[in-house]
Amino acid sequence: MAKSVHTVHETVFGALENPHVRGGRGEKTDWCALWAGGIIDPYFFKNDEGHNVTVNGDRYGTMITNFFIPELNNHDVQEPWFQQDGATCHTARAPIDLLKDTLGDRLISRFGPVNWPPRSCDLTPLDYFCGAM
């Protein structure tokens, strides 16, 4: 049995002027992970100029390579399980291949070794954490 289970979460916060409108000046997308030992700090998706951007497969793969994997190593998480929902950016071929190479069979995801169950309540704790930021 694995010692840790990771879940991931992304939240898109709406425009400051009207939170129901996407694409406004205040929109941001964040990602964070939770496991038995704590929370990996949020990652905010920004372009080279520091502007908030939406997530695509390339940006998600870059975050995994440059942020998530080093954070796993910093926290010395042994044999992590990683769960993510079926968002298109998560299930693009390159990020899935990267996660499979890193985690082996310990990936719960659409197109992963263990299929993600739709509408899984297991992602709920991060909804509360990230939503309160």
TrEMBL record:
<dbReference type="GO" id="GO:0003676">
    <property type="term" value="F:nucleic acid binding"/>
</dbReference>
<dbReference type="InterPro" id="IPR036397">
    <property type="entry name" value="RNaseH_sf"/>
</dbReference>
<protein>
    <submittedName>
        <fullName>Putative DD41D transposase</fullName>
    </submittedName>
</protein>
